[in-house]
Design brief:
heterodimer; A: alpha+beta; 6-stranded antiparallel beta sheet; 4-stranded antiparallel beta sheet; 19 helices; 64% helix; B: alpha/beta; Glutaredoxin; 5-stranded mixed beta sheet; two-stranded antiparallel ribbon; 7 strands; elongated
């Protein structure tokens, strides 16, 4: 009964989404207030029914209703309750439902915080979001119904994929999807602007906080995914350039470019058509990622069950959404371009360079991801594009970008006087060069080309990011403090610095050894002594494990103990590696059990990973910067506050 | 106007590529050997270095050749199935122990059981290159004339056996009988 309620609720949600998609758009076109007024109530109702559908599926999981096919395939009696709940989005059908849920929550939020915008504009935005939701709900109901019954019900389920039975992966998809789906708001704003034919600086100010919110969720989501891959896949890598990782990284790059381009559009009314194109691209790349993952068109460790009907449906949807938006763009964008000028040395120039470099990076990754597919279709043979290619292709546009960040951040709008800027940046540059040369040599006792360049770039970004906040701290009394948005920008860039430092150090000084060990044996890796004290069998709720006890000493002093596990999940009979990790800010010690080698010996992978934590810490700091910037007072749409800024915003032509 | 059309054109070009790509199986790697005579080989036996194991062992009959190694996780996964398969089928299963250490491989077979009629020991991987081995595990189906009828990459499972190997075996036997 409960699953049928869920199914029915989803159909009702679809009906409301159709109302939300069609009527406000029609109303905005005709100037009919009554039709436009449908948008908000329809969005709220649509959201309520999606929540009911989602709750019904969750209930089916928690009550072990194996008469539901999706539950029978992805759960099991002995599965801990937390994972029964996260199993809701553990596979294709349920993760689509999660996507729809998040989209409807974003839509309600947009409805709530868009009251200060013109009615016709918010009606168009909500209408576009409604149409997107229709597409996803039709996809779910027609090809991937999570409520499908399976009778007679089996006694027990087939269990959740053991890879997903992990706290990191339980929360990774919701956060990642919140980011992905969040870009649909920027997309809807762009389409609404093109439909109306008006795009002014107010538009950019409305779009900015939504984009930043989506971006910060995506940042955290990607960081979580990388962290999960690091400790769960058992190889100790943190990024694999897998098609699915690329699928989340390309929208991130486009979204980052969009945030910067929006800044120019808001402050100076420039780059309008470019900003529109980026808003379309960020969401299109999110959709493309979904298509690549769900259709099984590319081989990936993340690929869900593949089904050509699903692939065709998403492709058709993709074609309509992206093709439609780009056709609208080709029609409307030419009229929106503005010709206000700026000097070569100005913030506009640097933000333009930022955009060009980010877009080049995203394009190269897109090319590398699709190249195997293109080669196959052109009958040019099977090729695979691996991490070395991506690393070089990505580093080429990124290195100049990292060096330019520091200059761009302190350059004024319109025109900047070079001697003033040079005087300001002299000290940070000197600090960066000294620290960048000293750190690898003094701490790790070794020079290296790439690590030195990376460390200099990292220290450079950190130093320039702190100029503004430090100046605000030491400001004379009575002068205004740094705004929250500017502080957010500084913090986010500081995060980039941490991230770059972590990547440079771990790539250069990482030690990785595959060893054969028997209990009682010790090995020395990177100055640490690892002793495998014993191996014992363990019984988990739904798995059996072999656990090693590894004691770590440095110069005879006890540092810690690790318990890496090799698990076998009983239902799926699949082996899983649970690495033992001794984490600290300056280094991780990582031990993973491999395979039995006979005579009681095991292959053991021991790794020393200096500063790897900075990679995820850097990403979190970036997200924190985004949080500060997005919550700046300037973007709060309280009714009274808007009136006062309205005038200055409309004074765009003068500026 | 025209430069604003570029993104649309790019997408319009990519969509047919996706449509064609959808109908391809990305994990399918064509073997240059398919339906061609398999290379002949002769290598020392894994268990007894004094003896030789090679294509002569299965000449004139339908046979399976499984490429494996102790360092390969997929080989460990398929091992239990290979043991069962060796019991169930009358087709001889030969092993090609590929780029491995002899003592590791021998103790692996002692511990886990030996599904193979015999395993050849390809220490430096030369025979693997001749056979176009892409990555272990791989399983070749070779007919009495020494022609490769099918090649499966990745662990062998019951499902793959039923779907890909059985029909080819039956067709082959039909011709012979």
């Amino acid at each position: 009964m409960i699953p049928e309620i869920g199914h029915f609720a989803l159909i009702l949600a679809l009906s409301l989404a159709i109302c939300q998609g069609v009527m406000p758009l029609l109303g905005a076109h005709r100037g009919d207030d009554a039709l436009m007024a449908v948008a908000r109530p329809a969005a709220r109702g649509h959201c309520v029914f999606v929540i009911i559908a989602f709750a019904c599926l969750a209930w089916s999981f928690l009550s072990d209703d194996f008469s539901v096919l999706y539950v029978a395939n992805h759960s099991q009696l002995a599965l801990p309750d937390v994972y029964k709940f996260s199993a809701v989005w553990g596979a294709h059908e349920g993760s689509l439902l999660l996507w729809i849920l998040i989209l409807s929550v974003w839509t309600v939020a947009v409805g709530r915080y868009s009251r200060s915008m013109p009615e016709s504009f918010s009606a168009r935005v909500l209408g576009v979001l409604g149409l997107l939701s229709c597409g996803f709900m039709l996809f779910t109901l027609l090809t991937s119904n999570p409520f499908e019954r399976y009778l007679p019900a089996p006694q027990d389920g087939a269990d959740l994929n053991p890879l997903l039975q992990d706290p990191g992966l339980a929360i990774h998809p919701p956060i990642l999807y919140t980011g992905y789906v969040g870009f649909s708001v920027a997309f809807a704003f762009a389409v609404a602007a093109m439909l109306s034919g008006h795009l002014d600086r107010r538009w950019a100010r409305w779009t900015r906080p939504w984009t930043t919110w989506a971006w910060l969720f995506l940042t955290v989501g990607i960081a979580l995914g990388s962290w999960w891959a690091y400790y769960e896949l058992g190889w100790g890598g943190w990024w694999f350039w897998d098609p699915v990782e690329n699928a989340s990284f390309m929208p991130w790059l486009a979204g980052t470019a969009l945030i910067h381009s929006l800044a120019v559009t808001e402050k100076r009314g420039l780059f309008k058509s470019w900003t529109l194109l980026l808003a379309i691209s960020a969401f299109s790349l999110s959709l493309l990622g979904t298509f690549l993952v769900r259709s099984g068109i590319l081989v990936s460790v993340h690929a869900f069950a593949t089904d050509p009907a699903r692939g065709l449906f998403i492709l058709a949807f993709l074609g309509i959404v992206i093709g439609g938006a780009l056709a609208l763009y080709a029609w409307r964008a030419p009229a929106l371009d503005s010709d206000a000028g700026f000097k070569p040395l100005s913030r506009e120039t640097f933000l333009l360079l930022n955009n060009v470099l980010l877009v080049i990076a995203a394009t190269l990754i897109l090319f590398g991801t699709l190249a195997p597919l293109i080669a196959d279709v052109m009958k040019a043979g099977k090729i695979s594009v691996g991490a070395p290619w991506f690393e070089i292709a990505f580093a080429i546009p990124m290195l100049p970008l990292l060096l330019l960040i520091g200059v761009g951040m302190h350059t004024a709008w319109r025109s900047q006087d070079w001697p003033v800027l040079a005087a300001q940046l002299k000290m940070p540059a000197l600090f960066a060069i000294i620290a960048g040369l000293a750190l690898p040599a003094l701490v790790y006792g070794r020079f290296g080309g790439l690590v030195t360049v990376g460390a200099i770039a990292a220290f450079w970004i950190m130093a320039v990011a702190l100029i503004q906040p430090l100046r605000s701290l030491r400001r004379p009394p009575g002068t205004p403090a740094i705004t929250r948005a500017a502080l957010g920008m500084s913090i986010a860039h500081l995060g980039v610095g941490f991230f770059v430092l972590g990547v440079s150090i771990v790539q250069a000084f990482n030690v990785e050894e595959d060893l054969r060990m028997t209990p009682g044996q010790s090995v020395e890796v990177a100055g640490f002594t690892f002793e495998l004290r014993e191996l014992r069998n363990l019984q988990g709720p739904n798995f059996q494990a072999l656990e090693g006890e590894v004691e770590i000493r440095k110069n005879g002093k006890y540092i810690g103990e690790l318990r890496p596990q090799k698990r076998t999940y009983l239902v799926q009979q699949s082996p899983m590696t649970e690495a033992g990790i001794l984490a600290s800010l300056n280094r991780d010690l990582f031990v993973a059990l491999g395979d039995p080698l006979g005579d009681g010996a095991w292959s053991v992978r021991v790794q020393y990973k200096p500063m790897i934590r900075l990679i995820w810490l850097g990403a979190l700091i970036m997200a924190l910067g985004g949080l500060l910037a997005a919550s700046d007072r300037r973007y709060q749409f309280a009714k009274g506050a808007v009136k006062s800024t309205e005038k200055s915003a409309l004074g765009e032509k003068v500026a | 106007m025209s430069r604003f059309l570029i993104p649309l054109v790019l997408v319009a070009v990519m969509i047919p590529v996706f449509v064609i790509g959808l109908n391809r199986d990305p994990s399918e790697i064509p073997s240059p050997l398919l339906m061609k005579p398999a290379p002949e080989f002769e290598l020392p036996s894994l268990k007894d270095p004094g003896q030789n194991v090679g294509s002569a062992n299965y000449e004139g009959r339908l046979a399976l050749l499984n490429v494996w190694a102790t360092w390969c996780v997929g080989c460990r996964q398929e091992h239990d199935y290979l043991l069962r398969l060796a019991n169930e089928t009358d087709i001889p299963l030969y092993g090609l122990n590929w780029r491995d250490r002899r003592e590791d491989a021998v103790s692996w077979l002692q511990q886990l059981g030996d599904p193979y009629v015999a395993s050849a020991y390809d220490e430096d991987g030369r025979v693997g290159i001749d056979w176009g081995v892409y990555g272990a595990p791989e399983t070749f189906l070779i007919n009495a004339e020494g022609v490769v009828l099918y090649k499966h990459i990745s662990p062998l499972t019951e499902e793959v056996w039923q779907k890909e190997f059985q029909p080819r075996i039956l067709a082959e036997k039909g011709i012979i009988e």
